[in-house]
Write a structure and sequence with these properties.
By secondary structure, the protein is an alpha+beta fold. 20% of the residues lie in helices and 25% in strands. It has a domain of 43 residues.
Length: 87
């Protein structure tokens, strides 16, 4: 095992089939990754997301403020436009 980089989250090391990283707290291994950069990015990724399991796409878009109405003429989201429903 050839250790290549370490930080507070874990450490990245190389094996014949690619790069892996080990989580410092649990010892769980992740990989293989093609490059050390990919392994480091994955290791540094913070899963501090507001995503909730079971959340629908519409709920997530609403949280982000993304319009749910698509302009039928252009196919674009109608961001910042006032929309009146056709009745």
């Amino acid at each position: 095992m050839n250790e290549n980089t370490t930080n507070d989250t874990g450490r990245v090391f190389e094996r014949p089939d690619g790069y892996y990283w080990i989580e410092g707290a649990t010892g769980k291994e992740y990989g293989p990754f093609t490059t050390i950069e990919e392994a480091s990015l994955d290791m540094d990724y913070k899963a501090d997301s507001d995503y909730e399991p079971g959340e629908t796409l519409e709920e997530a878009e609403d949280e982000l403020g993304i319009s749910d109405w698509v302009d039928p003429d252009t196919g674009e989201l109608a961001e910042g436009l006032t929309h009146l429903e056709d009745h």
